[in-house]
Every structure is written in C-alpha cells, then in structure tokens.
Design goal:
- The protein is of the alpha+beta class.
- Helices cover 22% and strands 25% of the residues.
- It is built from 1 helix and 4 strands.
- Strands 1-2-4-3 form a 4-stranded mixed beta sheet, with no helix packed on it.
- The chain starts with 8 loop residues before the first strand and ends in a 23-residue tail after the last helix.
Length: 123
C-alpha cells in the first residue's frame, strides 16, 4: 500500500480442506494506541469477516512511541552529591582533629625558696 489514507486493505486466510475462508479488513487508526478486532459475521458460503482497527494496520506499520524524556535531573543530583561529599569530608576532618590532637596541659611553675620563713600559728 502507498501512503494514501482512503485505501482499505484486506487479508484473506484460506483453509482448503474445510472450504473456509477468513477475511480481515485492516483499518489504520493512528489516533488510538489500542488494537480492536471486531467480528462482523459469517456468510453462508463459509467466509468469516472481521475488522481490525489498529495503528499497526497503517501502510508504514507500527510506529513505536518515542520514549518519554528522562525525569531524572542529573544536574540537580550531581550538585547535591558534591555538596554532601564536601560536608561529610569536612565533618570527618573536624572529628579527626578533635580526637587526634591531645590538649597540652600546662602546670604553673612553682619556685620554692627554702629561705622563705614559714609563719606558724601567729595570731
């Protein structure tokens, strides 16, 4: 078939031993994405007639729908990952500095002079 819209295609299946024939009318339906098979009936001569409405009955066959654009925002989540990594790294550096650096205790220097008189019990 060519790309004209007015043509209706038919497919016929023959079963010679049983003298049966199945004819299917193919109707291109680009609006609907579903496939509908309708049984129209059977003639007295043993011919069954059906009608198939489908986007796959069009002259160029089924057109696969384009995939929806990705909803995953790579730019946003990359920035969130980098900021989270920096915050975790700074936290680890802070904890490491707190636990690894021991405070230096300074005691006052007392110089004891033995020549200094000690006063005992004076009132």
């Amino acid at each position: 078939m060519n790309s004209t819209n007015d043509l209706v295609a038919w497919i016929s299946y023959l079963a010679p031993p049983y003298n049966k024939r199945l004819s299917v009318q193919l109707i291109c339906d680009r609006i609907s994405s579903s496939h509908r098979l309708q049984v129209l009936g059977e003639t007295p001569v043993g011919e069954s007639v059906m009608q198939l409405r489908s986007p796959c009955a069009c002259w160029d066959g089924c057109i696969k729908p384009t995939p929806s654009p990705s909803t995953f925002n790579w730019y946003f989540w990359t920035r969130v990952g980098i900021v989270t990594g920096v915050v975790v790294l700074l936290f680890l550096i802070m904890i490491t500095c707190l636990f690894c650096s021991k405070p230096k205790r300074r005691y006052p220097v007392w110089i004891i002079n033995e020549s200094t008189p000690i006063l005992k019990g004076t009132m």
